[in-house]
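agent> call fold_tool(seq_1)
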Amino acid sequence: MSSASRFKMRIYSPQWGHKDLYQFKKTKPLFYKALLTESISYPNYLKTYISSAWENVNTLNKEQVQNIFDELSKWISASEHDIN
């Protein structure tokens, strides 16, 4: 699978009071900037987990990688709910 494949994450936004859909592909680390712009806090080790997911993008199928991002979405949203 190409690292240019698109993935998505639904993350709770305290600014809007609901989950927003983020679609992305591996290019630049603008994802974190988008989270900060939306005032979304994320766990300290998120970058490590996302890096690990990208390392596996060529050995897993797209559904498996999307499942990883789905779990990360839940983790970010849960962290955001715990803060607010």
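agent> call fold_tool(seq_2)
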Amino acid sequence: MTTTPPPPLKDTSEPLSSPASRIPQQSGLPRAGRSRAFTNWIIQVSSEDPGARSALRSGLRKDLDSVRRMHRLVAPWLPEPRSEDVERAYYTVAAMIAAQPRSALVVPQDATFGPDRSGEPVAAPHARRRRASLGTAFALAVAEGPGREKEMRAGAAESRLNLLTRQSVNGLHRHLPASVGYLRSLGVEVDWAQLLDDLSGWRRQSGRISRTWLQDFYRVRNKALVQQADNADEKELTAETAAAAGPSAP
């Protein structure tokens, strides 16, 4: 069972009541449950504890040997056994979550925590949530763009996504923070748990993951375009009907 780590050195100490000092236990969680519980907890601790958020954010775009401040928060969540790719994915996703504007750090409804028999806080990721790939997020950045202050052009979204799908593991870690940060700046939700799993398995399954991202992008884009066309037709029909009716009688 993963337990709360020993007290850190004096210069990084946390009050016993701080969110970062209450790391939930994860023993027995399946992979999907662990990913969701981890990302939910990172959102929570980043929103409630400025020191923890600063420590996590400091690891953005850094390798595993240069993220000393992150270890006390991320290490207790790492699965056993694990590959370096999985380990790196946990640190990268945690840093990207913490790098969001504080106003964007909204704890999902399924981020439930409660005490177990020993009094330790425990992640309860039992609430099922439909997963969305990064391709879906890019499509929504375009589909939901009109009417907002910011939007991503369809061509730019397609180019960015295609660039990501062609990356090696190192290239993906290098390019992902900027793309994800841009999506979040537009207010587009990112499924952090799904992204964590995709990043963890990229070396072995990049073909399948890339296919899913691109399929989701074009599927959601096409659905949005069809909806826009239907709305335009309905608006035009309404206008024609009103014109045919003529002016109202006095």
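agent> summarizing second result for user.
Confidence is low (pLDDT under 50) at residues 6-13, 113-121. Strands lie at 112-115, 121-124.
agent> awaiting next instruction.
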